[in-house]
Inverse folding.
């Protein structure tokens, strides 16, 4: 039996509340052998208290050894097998800005990047430009025309934008043009089948024209494209779990993930304090809250160990506001690890804590990778965290006679 069908069969509505706090890229590594990770270095008295009263472990986003993107990482946390539901980042970015994607559309996530006079990438994120600059650069690219294909270029945030290609016989089996490396040129797009070859042709045309338009706009003087995707068919969380679900996220891509699985998107404001205020104001309207915190990931990608420590500590300071609402279950984890040492997403299992009155405490006293390795949850695939949350919230009936 499929896990989702089991949830439908066993679910019960008892009015309990579940909060999932996702500190993006939470897991880390010591900078030197024998040292502490970012989470272990951070002063986290509130999270430590939750660990002492709860249970902890390590979650595996996809499979051992697989470094996930944010899409599969979050889908796993929502209880969807990321190997079964392969969803390109483009569709998530488009949904994140509430762009209405249709059946003839292929959506793509774009990055502004910096290239030198030889066309080689020197900064994959163009120095993280302001969102205002992103808007201006997108306006320039909206002038690009491709015969037989409509193009929509929309800003997202900082170096990120969305391109939607609309036309007949377009496929999404196209390689990313971001080489994920410096001192190399953006890649040429190639389609795996006839329809995707049509898309690749449009992509390559778009990239050439974008390069011409942005030539004198360094550091945002070139683009890379990735995550080609059409709109998928996917059951909502309310259909699966019977939960009224809400998303409190600042960054558009995570709103897109939440919208894809049927969550209501709440006004998250601009800061973590704003998000907590939204959580409080919306408390009586929903059963499940997904609260996303981005900055543990971006500091890790920047290789800034101390900044990541500071962002973890900032999250810890806000956790009493969550606990003060007396939720039945709180899970704190990440969608993947982003060690500052690696400056990238990694395959390392992610520290995870589950706080509920029904837990079997495991004796752990602090929230960190070493403690979680010995925790009572063990190493669990992320796709099972939702069934654990449902069980601890008293929302699952008995299986079988």
């Amino acid at each position: 039996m499929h896990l989702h069908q089991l949830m439908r069969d066993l679910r019960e509505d008892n009015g309990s509340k579940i909060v999932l706090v996702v500190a993006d890229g939470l897991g880390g590594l010591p900078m030197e052998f024998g040292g502490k990770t970012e989470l272990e270095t951070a002063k986290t008295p509130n999270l430590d208290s939750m660990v002492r009263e709860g249970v902890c472990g390590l979650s595996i986003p996809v499979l051992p050894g697989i470094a996930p993107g944010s899409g599969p990482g979050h889908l796993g946390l929502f209880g969807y097998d990321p190997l079964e539901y392969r969803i390109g980042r483009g569709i998530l970015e488009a949904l994140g800005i509430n762009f209405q994607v249709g059946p003839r559309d292929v959506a793509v996530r774009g990055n502004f990047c910096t290239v030198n006079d030889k066309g080689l990438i020197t900064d994959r994120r163009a120095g993280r430009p302001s969102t205002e600059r992103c808007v201006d650069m997108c306006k320039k690219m909206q002038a690009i025309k491709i015969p037989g294909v409509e193009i929509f270029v929309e800003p997202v945030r900082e170096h990120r934008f969305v391109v939607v290609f609309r036309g007949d016989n377009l496929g999404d089996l196209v390689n990313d043009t971001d080489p994920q490396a410096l001192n190399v040129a953006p890649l040429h797009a190639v389609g795996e089948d006839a329809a995707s070859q049509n898309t690749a042709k449009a992509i390559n045309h778009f990239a050439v024209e974008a390069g011409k338009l942005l030539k004198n706009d360094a550091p945002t003087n070139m683009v890379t494209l990735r995550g080609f995707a059409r709109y998928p068919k996917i059951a909502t969380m309310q259909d699966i779990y019977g939960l009224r679900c809400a998303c409190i996220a600042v960054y558009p891509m995570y709103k897109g993930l939440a919208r894809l699985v049927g969550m209501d998107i709440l006004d998250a404001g601009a800061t973590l304090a704003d998000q907590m205020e939204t959580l409080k104001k919306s408390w009586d309207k929903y059963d499940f809250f997904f609260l996303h915190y981005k900055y543990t990931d971006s500091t890790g990608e920047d290789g800034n160990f101390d900044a990541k420590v500071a962002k973890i500590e900032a999250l810890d300071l806000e956790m009493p506001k969550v606990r003060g609402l007396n939720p039945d279950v709180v899970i704190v984890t990440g969608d993947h690890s982003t060690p500052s040492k690696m400056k990238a997403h990694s395959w390392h299992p992610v520290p995870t804590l589950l706080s509920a009155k029904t837990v079997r405490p495991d004796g752990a006293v602090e929230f960190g990778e070493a403690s979680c390795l010995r925790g009572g949850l063990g190493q669990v695939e992320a796709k099972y965290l939702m069934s654990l949350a449902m069980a601890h919230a008293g929302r699952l009936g008995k299986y079988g006679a």
Summary: DSSP finds 14 helices and 13 strands in the chain. The chain has a mean pLDDT of 96.
